[in-house]
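Q: Hi! First time asking for a complex rather than a single chain. Here are the components, and I think there are two in total. Is that enough to go on?
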Amino acid sequence: MMLLRLIAQGVSDLARTPLTVATTVLSLTVVVFLGASFVLVLFNLDRNLKAAQGEVVFQMYWRSDTQKEIVFQQWTTIGDIPGVISLETITPQEAIEKLQKRFHFEDNISIDGILPYTALVYVRIPETDPRTWMQAMYDRLMALPGVEQVRYDPLRVDLAASWFAWSKRLLLPVALVLLSLVALASGVAVRATVAAKQEEIEILSLVGASPAYIRIPLMVGAAFQGLGSSSLAMLSLYGVYSYLTPMIQGSLLVLTFLPESIIVISITTVTIFTTIGSCFSFRNL
Amino acid sequence: MIEVSHLSFAFGSHLVLQDISFTLGQGEFAFLSGPSGSGKTTLLRLLHGTLSLTKGRATIAGFELRRLSRWNRYLLRRQVSVVFQDFKILPRHTVFCNVALPLQVMGIERHIIHKRVAVVLRSLHLEEKAKMRCEELSGGEQQRVAVARAVVVKPKVLLADEPTGNLDGTLALRMMDVFRQFNRFGTTILFATHNPDLIARVPEARTLRLIEGRLQ
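A: Yes, that's all I need. Here is the structure of the assembled complex.
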C-alpha cells in the first residue's frame, strides 16, 4: 500500500516542477535522438556493406549430354536452397542466340552436344564461418547429377569474411560505446530534476523519512522521464526516417529502421540509467 | 536519554569537539551554551546523525550512534527531533503539510495525522494558519511551524539549534515557554543558545558550557 502510494507520488511529483521536468525530458530526448541517429547510420551502413560484400556468384556447367528435363528440375531445386538470392539460367539455345546476336551470324548453327547448360547462382554468404558455408554449398552444387563444373571466386569470399570480422570487431563496440555515452548522459540529465528537490530531500531526511521513502518517488519520476524521452526520441527518429526514406530509396543505399531489439535495448538502457542516476544525484543527510 | 562519552570530532585537521562527556536523563532540560564557533551545532548534528561519529561514544534515545548505519538513521530521527535556527521548512507547502510531514513519512493513517496536527497547531496558536503557505508567514510563525513539526511525533528527545536566533526578544521568550511546555510532557530537550536571557527563563535547566570544543 505504502509502495503504491510512493509510486503514485513519484508520478504526481512530476507535475509539481513542470518546467524542470520538461527541460530534462527535452535534453534527454535530444541526447537519445542523436545517439540513436548515429546508430541508425551505422546500422544501415553496415547492412548495405554486408549486402554488397557478402554476395558471391557460383558459375555452374552441366555436361553437354545431360537431359534438359533433369537440368530444369535442378534449377528449381537450386532456387530453393537457403542463401540463394537469385538464379540466372542459360540453355544452349539461349547461349547460341546470344552469340549470334553478338557476332551478327545469320545462319543456323547446330548446337547439339556442343554447348552445356549453365547457370549463375547468386548467394548471400552468412557472417558465421563463411568459408565453410561456401565449401558446403560448392559440394552440394557439385553433387547434383550431371553437373560437370562449379566455379566461384575465393577472393570474394575472403573479402566478405574479413569485412564481417571487421564489422563484428569495430561496429559493435562503437555502438556499445555510443549507448554507454547516451546512458551516462541520461543519468546526468535527470540530476537536474532531482537537484530541484534537494531542499525537500534534506528536510524529508531530517524528519525521519526512510531511504526508500525518499528514493522511490525520485526513481519512479526519473524512470518515467527516461522512458518518455527515449520513446519520444525513437518516435522522432522514425519520423525523420520515414521522411528521408523516399528520397534515398532507389539510390545505392537501402535504408532500414533500427530493429526492435535495438529500440528496446536503447529505451531500457536510458530508463535504467535515469533511474540509477536519480539515486546517486542527491546528498543523503 | 542522552549519554555522551569521550566524544571528539574534527573537520579534517581542525578539531571541533574534544573529549566531550555528559549525560541527560529522561525529561531533562539542558542548555548548550557557548560563543559562536564553540562546536554547539556540530555536537547537535552528531547527536542527530547528520554527521558521523568518529571518536568516542554517544547513545541517544536508545540508539548507539557508532552502530547506527546510514540506512537506519531515519529510525533515530523518528525518536529525536530537531529544530534549526533557519527553520528548514518547505516554504511553498502549507503549514498543515509541513507539520504533518514527519507523520506521513512514518506511514501513519490520515485521520490520525489530522487529529495530531490539529492538536499541535492549536497548542502553538497556529490553527488558523493551517492552510496558509509557510512563505506567507512571519519569521516567528515559521519558527513555530518548525517547532510544531518537531513535536508532532512526540519525540523522546528534542534538539534545538538556536531556534530563537532569528526572533526578537519577546518572541524568543515566548518560544522558550513553548519548549518548556513540551518538556513538561517528558521530552528531553537539549537547547543550544548563547542568549543568557533564554537560559535564565528556565531556571531548573542544566547548562552545558562549551568553549572551543571543550565542556567547561
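A: Chain B has one domain: 2-93+156-215. Let me know if you'd like any chain examined more closely.
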